[in-house]
Structures are given as structure tokens and as C-alpha cells.
Amino acid sequence: MSLRRTSWVVALSICVSISGCTLFKKSPESALKRIKAEKILRIAIDPTYAPMEFDGPDGKPTGFDVELGVAIAQEMGVSAKFITMSWEGILTGLVSGGRYDVIMSSMNITQERLKQVNFVKYLEMSQVFVSRTTGKHVKTTADLSDKIVAVQADTTSHSAVQSAQKKGVKIKKIKAFQKATDVFQAVRVGQADVIVIDEPVGLYHANKDPKTFKVTGHAIAPEPVGIAIRKNAKALKKAIESAVSKLKSDGTFKRISHKWFGTELGKL
């Protein structure tokens, strides 16, 4: 989940559901028909990315993406079922044709990923620096010099920090974690000096624990985020595009954004 979440990790994945794989491979355009028949849209998320997607107090998935995913499914006349996945395997799981139909987990649209899947864009997000409230604040990329930087592995944030290092910023160390929650814990306990992460996620943790965290600057300008769909599921892509458009035009998207962020996401 920075802007989220990004770089493609090439890996082979064993299909969890043999019958599901067979169905997707034999009949690529049957995805939407099957969803309509079963009345279930299976959505994969990495539930470590509050407030976008995370496990609520009752153990059930919640967050902006989750609530929007429910609304998209309802607009399509079906119910949403959320499949929790680790970030490093989530895209491979979709491409291999396993347990879920789409990914809706704050995933950036990149040229590399577009070679593997199609996307329905639904928002743009920038990335920010999150520093400890006390101590020296990181406001620009140059301020990363001599700092230990925490990022979620295989994300846009991770790539951006690596790129800054290659361009000559003397970063002391890059610490990459599989879970976004571990990124904040690293700064909390002093294992890292600063975090680079999506703006809504940084703001969420800073508001939740202002004694520890503070958003201190913008790292990367807004980038597109989308719902990932298999390339052969064209009818499903069209149906989701229609649902997203309707939810934006009728005010649902804005209402959900205000619930979670106090403003319309993409305009933070």
C-alpha cells in the first residue's frame, strides 16, 4: 500500500484454487458472468495499510478502499468478498488466476505493471516524509542524507528512496519492511529516522499518534492509483469503470473520502 506500492516482483505462484484457475484460463471473458452468477466480487487487499485497508477491531477488513470496494460491488449488483494477501505476492496471485478477481489495495499504476495487468484508475495520491515529532525533520529529499529511511518493500516509496540514493543522496541505510505497520514501528522504537509513504497513510498515523509522528514534507507528487484486473477480463474492466464513474458522479466517492480523511482523497 506507497503510492504505494509499487514495483513488480517477478515470481511464480502456485494456484490455490485449481477449479478457479481452470475457469479463468478456459473462458477469459467469463469472469464477469461468473461474478454476476455467484453475486460475489472477490477483492484482494494487503490489510496492513491503514486507513486505506486494515483489520478493524472486530477483525474484519475496513478502510477507505474496503468501503469503496463494497460500493463498487453494490453498483455492479453483487457483494464484495475481501481476500487478504501479503503485498509481495498480491499481483502474482492475480496474474496466475487464483482466488480473487481484482486487487484494490492502493496500488500505483506503473508502466511495468501495465505489461501484466489492466487498471481502472480511481484516485491519485502523493507521498510524504514522516519524521519523529522530536528531533530534526526531513522536509526534502536532500534531508535524507545521513538518515536511516524506513519504507515498505517493493513499493513506489522504496523505489524513490533507492533512486535518490543512486543520484547521490548519502542515505545512511534503507530499511525495507514487508508490512506498512512495521515501517512505523521502526521509527517509533528508533530503528529508523524517517518514513516515506503515501500521504493518507502518513497523515493517519500522525493524527493517531501525534506525540511520535509528524508529516514533515512531500516526497513525490501525486501519482495514479488503480484497481488491477487481469488483461483478459475486458468485460469486468468495463463494468468496474462504469461503477467507479457512477460513484464519483453521484457523490459516493466524495462521501467515503470525507468519512476517512475529512476531505476528498486526491485533494489533500
Describe the protein.
With 268 residues, the protein is of the alpha/beta class. It folds into two domains: 18-125 and 223-261, D-Maltodextrin-Binding Protein, domain 2, CATH 3.40.190.10; 126-222, Periplasmic binding protein-like II (D-Maltodextrin-Binding Protein, domain 2), CATH 3.40.190.10. Helix content is 37%, strand content 28%. It contains ten helices and eleven strands. 47% of the residues are buried.
List keywords for this structure.
268 residues, alpha/beta, D-Maltodextrin-Binding Protein, domain 2, 8-stranded mixed beta sheet, 3-stranded antiparallel beta sheet, 11 strands, 28% strand
How are the elements arranged and paired?
Layout: H1 18-26, H2 30-38, E1 40-45, E2 48-49, E3 53-55, E4 61-62, H3 64-75, E5 79-84, H4 87-95, E6 102-108, H5 111-114, E7 117-132, E8 148-152, H6 156-166, E9 173-177, H7 180-188, E10 194-198, H8 199-208, E11 213-230, H9 234-249, H10 252-261
Parallel strand pairs: 1-5, 1-6, 8-9, 8-10
Antiparallel strand pairs: 2-3, 3-4, 6-11, 7-10, 7-11
Helix pairs in contact: 3-9, 3-10
Kindly state the percentage of residues in helix: 25-40%
User: Measured on Cα atoms, how large is the radius of gyration?
Assistant: 19 Å
Question: How big a fraction of the residues is strand?
Answer: 25-35%
Distance between the termini: 17 Å
- CATH fold description of the largest domain: D-Maltodextrin-Binding Protein, domain 2
Classified in CATH, the superfamily of the largest domain is: Periplasmic binding protein-like II
What does the main sheet amount to? Answer: 8 strands, mixed
* Beta strand count: 11
The CATH architecture name of the largest domain reads 3-Layer(aba) Sandwich
At the first level of CATH, what is the class of the largest domain? Alpha Beta
Number of domains: 2
Class computed from helices, strands and strand pairing: alpha/beta
Q: Quaternary state, please?
A: single chain
The side-by-side strand order for the widest beta sheet comes to: 5-1-6-11-7-10-8-9
Shape: globular
Provide the low-confidence segments as ranges: 6-26
* Element order: H for helix, E for strand: HHEEEEHEHEHEEHEHEHEHH
Continuous helix count: 10
Mean pLDDT: 88
